[in-house]
């Protein structure tokens, strides 16, 4: 692996860093007091500023409004922006997953209408895939779309849709033919999130956040012109989205604590014998294991960066990083909160800010172990595609969907 930028990459990094230092000064510290309206306003302003500077759609084709640069350019920009607390999360799904699907499978007219506005941050998008009975098994969805002249009528329910409450449009995968095997009867559409028959209900999480939503479709009418890909080709279209999703959620979150926070807490915490907890052998062992995991994640991601820098495609071994990241976050935060004793249980104004971050990490890691592919799905990918082990039996694979049950 080559850990160094090429001369061209180093030049681009210096350019990006200089621009961010001049334009992202207001985001050197997190703004945890923002309400949703304020967050959206800052997000749109920041996205528009990036658009004007040429730092949006970095790898996208020039004809659709992108910069036409390499994946390494996008990674370098993300690394440099990661030094700041910029309000970029509102667009992570839309620009990271939805819009690439739109310009890959949509008509030229659809691409011209929606892609530029999304790049400028004028319209927010969400991804409507998971259902109460179809999470990891996406091909098991039941939301149906029925043809009605030049339109389709959609009925059903989606769940765990991030930012649905703040979105203007979404991409939705539906079942258009239940008489064929489950992977072959799907079709994807663009949907107006404010259309008649759409209902968005926020899901209150145990962390207190409400970023996820249930979305109900009742007779929602969608023009056939908003179809992405051919009728019955929805699984192929969905794979485009899922490929981008793996890249978007596979890394360690910027706010996630690491071994440094665990060391700091262990130095300040008193063990039962009165000595600093960091002097205890079991504590030092846990810190060392966390460090090893962090380095393993970093090196696995560097393998992907090296491949991208050489124009190659990273392999399925990237699933390893996703499995380790979420588990490490959860284990680290759990151990740290146990180490803090009663202080680790405090919440609200009584909580220590650093312990509050660890609480958030502990709770959030549970969701990260599901989002973008559950631990079990990723272990199957690693077993089958990395280790070459036999695949799982899938007895319903070739049965008509309406007969498989």
Task: Give a written overview of the molecule.
The protein has helices at 7-23, 36-53, 71-81, 92-105, 108-120, 234-249, 259-268, 281-309, 318-339, 353-368, 375-386, 401-404; strands at residues 125-128, 144-148, 151-159, 169-175, 186-192, 198-202, 213-223, 227-228. The mean pLDDT is 87. It is of the alpha+beta class and 405 residues long. Helices cover 45% and strands 12% of the residues. α4 packs antiparallel against α5, α9 runs antiparallel to α10 (353-368) and α9 (318-339) packs antiparallel against α11. The chain is globular and about 75 Å long. It folds into three domains: 7-87, no CATH class; 126-244, Butyryl-CoA Dehydrogenase, subunit A, domain 2 (Beta Barrel), CATH 2.40.110.10; 250-386, Up-down Bundle (Butyryl-CoA Dehydrogenase, subunit A, domain 3). The strands form two sheets. The protein has a four-stranded mixed sheet. A four-stranded antiparallel sheet has the order 2-3-7-6, with no helix packed on it. The chain starts with 6 loop residues before the first helix and ends with a helix.
Short description:
The chain is α+β, with helices and mostly antiparallel strands. The protein is 45% helix and 12% strand. A hairpin with a 2-residue loop joins strand 2 (144-148) and strand 3 (151-159).
């Amino acid at each position: 692996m080559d850990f160094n930028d090429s001369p061209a990459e180093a030049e681009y990094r210096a350019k990006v860093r200089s621009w961010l230092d001049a334009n992202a000064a207001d985001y050197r510290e997190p703004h945890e007091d923002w309400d949703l309206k304020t967050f959206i306003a800052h997000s749109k302003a920041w996205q528009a500023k990036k658009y004007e500077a040429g730092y949006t759609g970095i790898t996208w084709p020039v004809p659709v409004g992108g910069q036409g640069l390499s994946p390494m350019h996008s990674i370098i920009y993300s690394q440099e922006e990661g030094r700041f607390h910029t309000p970029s999360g509102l667009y992570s799904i839309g620009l990271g997953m939805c819009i690439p699907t739109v310009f890959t499978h949509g008509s030229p007219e659809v691409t011209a209408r929606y892609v530029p506005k999304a790049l400028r941050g004028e319209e927010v998008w969400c991804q409507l895939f998971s259902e109460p009975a179809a999470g990891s098994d996406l091909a098991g969805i039941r939301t149906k779309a029925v043809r009605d002249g030049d339109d389709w009528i959609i009925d059903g329910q989606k769940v765990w849709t991030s930012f649905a409450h703040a979105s203007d449009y979404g991409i939705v995968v539906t079942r258009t033919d239940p008489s064929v095997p489950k992977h072959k009867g799907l079709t994807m559409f663009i949907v107006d999130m404010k259309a008649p028959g759409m209902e968005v209900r926020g899901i209150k999480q145990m962390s207190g956040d409400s970023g996820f939503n249930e979305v109900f479709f009742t007779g929602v009418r969608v023009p056939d012109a908003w179809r992405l890909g051919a009728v019955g080709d929805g699984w192929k279209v969905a794979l485009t989205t899922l490929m981008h999703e793996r890249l978007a959620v596979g890394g360690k979150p910027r706010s996630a604590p690491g071994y440094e926070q665990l060391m700091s807490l262990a130095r300040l915490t008193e063990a039962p014998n009165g000595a600093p907890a960091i002097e205890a052998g079991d504590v030092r062992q846990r810190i060392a294991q966390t460090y090893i995991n962090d380095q393993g994640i970093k090196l696995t991601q560097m393998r992907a960066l090296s491949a991208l820098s050489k124009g190659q495609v990273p392999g399925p071994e990237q699933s390893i990083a996703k499995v380790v990241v979420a588990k490490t976050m959860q284990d680290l935060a759990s151990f740290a909160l146990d180490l803090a004793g009663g202080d680790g249980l405090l919440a609200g104004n009584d909580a220590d800010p650093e312990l509050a971050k660890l609480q958030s990490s502990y709770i959030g890691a549970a969701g990260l172990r599901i989002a973008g592919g559950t631990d079990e799905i990723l272990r199957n990918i690693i077993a089958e595609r990395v280790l070459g082990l036999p695949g799982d039996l899938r007895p319903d694979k070739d049965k008509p969907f309406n007969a498989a049950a």
